[in-house]
Design a protein that fits this description.
two-stranded antiparallel ribbon; Spore Coat Polysaccharide Biosynthesis Protein SpsA, Chain A; seven-stranded mixed β-sheet; Nucleotide-diphossugar_trans; globular; 2 domains; alpha/beta; transmembrane helix
């Protein structure tokens, strides 16, 4: 029975004359009824209401039509703009990676793409001819009725039936086994993420944080502190970094600043040397060092600086990368934690980001880094007294560095290397979540991609080198297990492996081999829950939960490729590319810079300590900078592996329509579009 629609009140709300008439519709299909009644006045007013409601109905239709046309026009404009960008990218044909890098993975992805297109065409032909069957289980030959020989219609039908038998006998079982392994790894990694979040909640609930021994800082004599600023061709950020470090509130005679310049551009060397001379004239204890033989990247730079004779007079060393701007009270908030704690080797501060809202890419990075500091670093620091040194914004006890073997040039993750070796020697670490140092995150996808490649290839390279040392060390068994199983294997190897394999390989393959199943909760529910937990430390980023989930899966191809290159020591495993900086500053920094500029001393006084040859070179450089130089042409690039995966996922999404798998279709569609946008370099900074 259809629902009863009673319109009595609606018909008579404006008229109470005559005999009331009740119209009841028993059938949802509209029909024309003729009703005779004695009162014409009542029906006259009802005719007016009918006319009024007919006009309202017409206006509603027009409004909806206008909205629909606007939506279609917006979609067409967006599609046309996307096609224009694709055309522009393809015409420029500027690749996003060096020739030879990742060629094997790209060839494998292209092979999968070609096979998927052929399989999709085959499936469409079968579906059109009525040969398509419902999704069977792995026991297809026993449960699916295969037509007899007399029922087979042509060689194409026979080939399709042979394909069904072949994929059930030889393809489905291996894929299902790999799927089960990845699901188990996925569950273990999700459990680890849940435990870290629970540990963070417990720390917040108990208000646990490192505290300074003693009543006040005045009771502790100012120790000798060495501050190092390693940099390499950092034209955009050298000035603000040196300026911020030189304004740290610490006795001038108890602090020495080393500017460790590895720049190979002579113009940048002159600028940095002049900046150092300016602050030296203002009474700051600062020196400039430039290596003639630049080996070992950042580790070699730091190792060379620690070899100076005067370093033995200092007790602690603070390290800041070129884009970091510490607050004046940084040393007063970090150094006192070493008091009365001789086993403490490292105090690590948290990063704060000046450009986190610059574009979508910086917002997604902000989510990841907030979780890293708020959850991973804080929980490991409180519960284990160990975490990976972030390479900057930290203070080391020089004795701990020397006891651990100092800086080694064997990997591109020298910060993680020294942290692991110090942990094996028994030194403890403290993470200060309340002490923040301003810096910036990469704004272009190219810079972010190169950074992530180094961050994921280096740990695997380091794991190969330090595994024997971990096994032979005298630390407890559970600390060894934490280092090997959790710190390296689970978080550095298993995470990129299952992310890429499960969501970029197995999922599209199961669309063409439906006998192997991937549960919906693995595709949708658990990833959304994990993304929700990742965004908790950055609650303002909740609107970006879906882009964050898709982008993390998109980055899995870069992380997987980096992990493999580091694990097997391929060509790109020992390569350091300086992350591009933009030199952005906060509003307070800009005001302070303007004030400093207004109070700056004369050029001759600033350059008083500079040699005549350097001064002439600097003046010549300033004259060249004053001339109108042609703009450097910069363009966004295309990334072939991401594009190959985009088309593979979109083809798999089209195949899922034949099986009527709704959630799989939407996930593959949105993930394919995400790969397409990243492959065309539409995420992050856009070049003109």
């Amino acid at each position: 029975m259809a629902p009863r629609l009673d319109f009595s009140d609606w018909w008579t709300r404006n008229s109470r004359k005559g005999t009331p008439v009740i119209v009841t519709m028993e059938n949802p299909n509209y029909s024309v009824l003729e009703i005779d009644g004695p009162d014409e006045e009542a029906f006259g007013s009802m005719e007016k209401d009918r006319g009024k409601n007919a006009k309202q109905f017409s206006w509603n239709l027009l409004l909806k039509a206008h909205r629909a046309v606007g939506c279609v026009a917006w979609s067409a404009t967006a599609l046309w703009a996307l096609l224009g960008v694709i055309k522009k990218r393809l015409i420029s044909r500027q690749g996003g990676e060096k020739p030879g890098r990742g060629r094997l993975l790209l060839r494998v992805l292209r092979m999968f793409l070609v096979l998927s297109v052929v399989a999709l065409a085959f499936e469409f032909v079968a579906y059109w001819n009525g040969w398509h069957f419902q999704k069977p289980n792995l026991q297809l030959p026993e449960n699916l009725h295969i037509p007899e020989t007399t029922e087979i219609r042509g060689w194409l039908h026979s080939a399709y039936l042979s394909w069904l038998l072949f994929r059930a006998d030889y393809i489905a079982h291996p894929i299902q086994m790999l799927t089960n392994v990845c699901i188990v790894l996925f569950i273990i990694q999700s459990a680890d993420r849940m435990i870290l979040c629970l540990g963070c909640f417990w720390i917040k609930f108990k208000k646990i944080k490192p505290r300074i021994d003693g009543d006040s800082f005045k009771e502790y004599e100012h120790p000798m502190v060495l501050i190092q600023i390693p940099m390499c061709n950092e034209r955009e950020v050298y000035e603000q970094s040196i300026s911020a470090v030189c304004q740290i509130d610490w006795p001038k005679d108890r602090m020495l600043i080393q500017v460790l310049d590895d720049s190979d551009d002579e113009a940048i060397q002159i600028l940095i040397r002049a900046e150092v001379s300016k602050w030296s004239q203002r009474g700051t204890n600062i020196v400039y060092r430039h290596r003639l033989v630049r080996t070992g990247y950042k580790a070699g730079n730091l190792k060379s600086a620690m070899g100076c004779d005067y370093v033995q007079n200092y007790e602690f060393v603070a390290i800041f990368d070129a884009d970091f701007q510490p607050n004046p009270d940084f040393l007063k908030l970090t150094i006192p934690h070493f008091k009365g704690n001789p086993e403490l080797g490292l105090v690590q501060a948290r990063w704060s980001f000046v450009n986190k809202d610059e574009n979508l890419l910086t917002r997604l990075q902000y989510i990841n880094l907030c979780f890293h500091f708020e959850v991973e670093q804080q929980v490991n620091g409180v519960l284990l007294n160990f975490f990976g040194f972030n390479g900057t914004a930290g203070v080391w006890r020089i004795k701990a560095l020397e006891d651990s073997g100092g800086w080694l040039e064997r990997t591109t993750v020298e910060d993680m290397d020294i942290a692991v070796r110090a942990h094996l020697k028994g030194w403890k670490f403290i993470f200060l979540n309340d002490v923040k140092v301003l810096c910036e995150v990469p704004e272009s996808y190219e810079a972010y991609r190169k950074q992530q490649h180094r961050w994921h290839s280096g740990p695997m390279h380091l794991f190969r080198l330090c595994l024997p040392d971990i096994i032979r060390s005298k630390i407890s068994i559970w600390k060894k297990a934490n280092l090997i199983l959790l710190f390296f294997l689970l978080r550095k190897l298993i995470l990129p492996f299952y992310s890429f394999t499960l969501f970029c390989v197995i999922l599209p393959v199961t669309m063409f081999v439906p006998e192997a199943e991937l549960p919906v909760w693995v595709i949708c529910y658990v990833p959304v829950l994990m993304s929700f937990l990742n965004i908790l430390p950055a609650p303002r980023s909740f609107p970006f939960i879906v882009p964050y989930l898709l982008f993390e899966n998109t980055m899995s191809v870069t992380k997987f490729n980096a992990m493999v290159s580091g694990l097997f020591q391929l060509g790109s495993s020992y390569e350091w590319i300086v992350t591009k900086k933009t030199g952005r500053s906060s509003e307070s920094d800009l005001l302070a810079a303007a004030e400093r500029e207004s109070k700056s001393i004369s050029l001759s006084k600033i350059h008083k300590g500079v040699s005549e040859s350097e001064l002439s070179e600097l003046s010549k450089l300033q004259e060249e900078q004053g001339k109108a130089l042609p703009p450097v042409r910069k363009e966004n690039k295309i990334y072939k592996k991401e594009l190959a995966l985009a088309f593979l996922l979109l083809v798999a999404a089209a195949r899922s329509l034949l099986s009527a798998q709704g959630i799989h279709f939407y996930f593959l569609l949105f993930q394919g579009v995400s790969f397409l946008l990243v492959g065309l370099d539409l995420v992050g900074e856009q070049m003109s």
